[in-house]
Amino acid sequence: MSELRKLKITEMNRLTVQEFKEAAKLPLVVVLDEVRSLHNIGAVFRTSDAFLVNSIYLCGITATPPHPEMHKTALGAEYTVEWKYFKNTLDAVEELHKEGYTVMSIEQCEGSMMLDKLEVEAGKKYAIVMGNEVKGVQQEVVNRCDGCIEIPQYGTKHSLNVSVTAGIVLWEFANRLMALRK
C-alpha cells in the first residue's frame, strides 16, 4: 500500500480573508430560523465559508457574532461570511423574495423535493431556510417559502442535526452551482 502524506496548511492554497471577501460568491443565502446552539451556528458559518456562500441570515433566537462559543466551531468564518440579523424569519424571507431569490425550506413536508433531485438554473438566486434543532422550520415560514427540500434518509431516525444538514445541503448546492460556472 502506498503511503499518503497529509498536506500542510501552507500547501492547501486557501484564500486569505481579503481574497475571500473579494471572491465571487455563490448565489446562495443560508437562513437560520430560531437555531439555538452556538456550536451549530458556528458550524454553519464554517461550512458556508468552505462553499463560498453569499451570506447568512440569522433570525429570532439565533445568536449573532461575535461569541466565544460560536467561534469554537466557526474558527473565524464568522468574520469572513457576511451575515445579517432579523428578529422575525418571515421578514428575512420577504426581503429575499423582493431581491429575487427562490427560497426553499429544508424540511420534511408533503410534496418535498428530494435533495438528490435538486436542479438549479443559471442566473437564479437561491436561499435555504434551516430550522430549530427540535421544532425545525416554523410552519408559518414553510408556508411563505417557494418549496421544501428534503434529505433522503434510510435509517430509523427522522432527522439530522442542523449543522450536518447544512453540510449536506450546501455541498449539493455548491456542486450544482459551481458546475454552472464552468
Task: Describe this entry's structure for a reader.
The structure is a single chain. Helix content is 34%, strand content 21%. It has helices at 17-22, 38-50, 68-74, 89-98, 139-144, 162-181, and strands at residues 26-33, 53-59, 82-86, 101-106, 113-114, 125-131, 147-150. Strand 1, helix 2 and strand 2 (53-59) form a beta-alpha-beta unit. It is globular, with a radius of gyration of 17 Å. The protein starts with 16 loop residues before the first helix and ends with a helix.
SSE blueprint and pairings:
Layout: H1 17-22, E1 26-33, H2 38-50, E2 53-59, H3 68-74, E3 82-86, H4 89-98, E4 101-106, E5 113-114, E6 125-131, H5 139-144, E7 147-150, H6 162-181
Parallel strand pairs: 1-2, 1-6, 2-3, 4-6, 4-7, 5-7
Kindly list the characteristics that best describe this protein.
7-stranded parallel β-sheet; alpha/beta; 6 helices; 21% strand; 182 residues
Summarize the structure.
This protein is of the alpha/beta class and 182 residues long. Helix content is 34%, strand content 21%. Helix 2 (38-50) packs parallel to helix 3 and helix 2 (38-50) runs parallel beside helix 6 (162-181).
- State the end-to-end CA separation: 35 Å
Number of helical elements: 6
| Biggest sheet, spatial arrangement of strands | 3-2-1-6-4-7-5
Fraction in helix: 25-40%
The coarse silhouette is globular
User: What order do the helices and strands follow?
Assistant: HEHEHEHEEEHEH
| Percent in strands | 15-25%
Please state the CA-atom Rg, rounded to the nearest Å: 17 Å
Mean pLDDT across all residues, rounded? 96
**Broad structural category:** alpha/beta
- Low-confidence blocks of residues: none
> Mind describing the biggest β-sheet?
7 strands, parallel
